[in-house]
Amino acid sequence: MKISRSFLFFAVFTVILGYLGCTQQPVSLSTPQPDLNSETKPQKTYEDLIVGFAQLGAESEWRVANTVSIKETAEQLGVELRFLDAQQKQDNQIEAVRKLIIQKVDIIGISPIVETGWEEVFQEAKDAGIPIILVDRRATVPEDLYISYLGSDFLEEGRKSARIMAELVNGKANIVELVGTIDSAPANDRYIGFREVLKDYPEMQIIDSQSGDFTRARGKEVMAVFLRNYGNKITAVYAHNDDMALGAIEAIEEYGLNPGVDIKIVSVDAARGAFEAMIAGKLNATVECNPLLGPQFFELALKVVNGLPTPKWVPSIEGIFFPEDASKILPTRKY
Ligand code: AHR
Q1: What are the pLDDT digits (tens) for 123-144?
Q2: Quick check: CB of 269 below 6 Å from ligand 1?
Q3: Among 59, 231, 251, 271, which is 20 to 30 Å from 335 by CA?
Q4: What is the pTM of this model?
Q5: Domains, the chain
Q6: Ligand 1 atom with the shortest distance to the CA of 184
């Protein structure tokens, strides 16, 4: 009798504690919990959302398509979008995040221009209760400082590029590499992924590797320097994006060689310009990196704001394209 009375007391006490919410854990930004009050509390819709987006710039055909996708999707869904363009400078992008925090937006999307240097400002957003979604590019920060990363597997893009290159050159080449923006996630990972596969091809050597900053103009300048330094020794170009490959094609033609024939070229993005170059026989392959992230981004944003769980990484689905199919596929390309 004594035992069952104390058990009863314990049970009642536990129920009361639970009712008062004393045992509830704080909800962390990194692990959004399902909204247990969803039946009583109205869920937000797209029309209720105020979304901030800190874009890094407009350096490439890819980036322009990415911006259009974000802006058009916001308009279609009726989301209020506060879009800021950092014009290729990390300081501007940090400032943009701070502006969006002051404006008390519901959520911030950002494509970090480089991987490092984000901890302080992401912490400020977290302290203000504003979740961050990384769009397209990762940042090297503790996982609790952002909700999800939406974007490509850049390492795999590097590996795919190397596998295609190995086939094109029958396992033997003197490669020059046009690297993207220094310290950016795609440049870092495409650099590493390419080399991982090259370990199996001892006769494929990277004879030089320089940054062309993901732009056509820099790609052309750097390729011209490679040609001045190595001339006919170069048999292949690996460009971290299509814009730099298109610049390299111009430099190779000006040097008097045939791009795609004398020098094999593989690049990343699969933008329209790459398809046109493949149709002209000047580019040998392009590995897709999908910029049309608007729909997935706003879907994620709405889930986060409504407290629904989201994966830490939402990968984009991507293919590889070759000259044989380029004319058929070009009309279907949206960027
Ligand atoms: O982060 C994605 C990369 O950034 C694209 O490959 C490149 O074209 C862009 O500038």
Answers
A1: 999 999 999 999 999 999 999 9
A2: yes
A3: 251
A4: 0.87
A5: 46-152+292-316 (3.40.50.2300), 154-289 (3.40.50.2300)
A6: 1
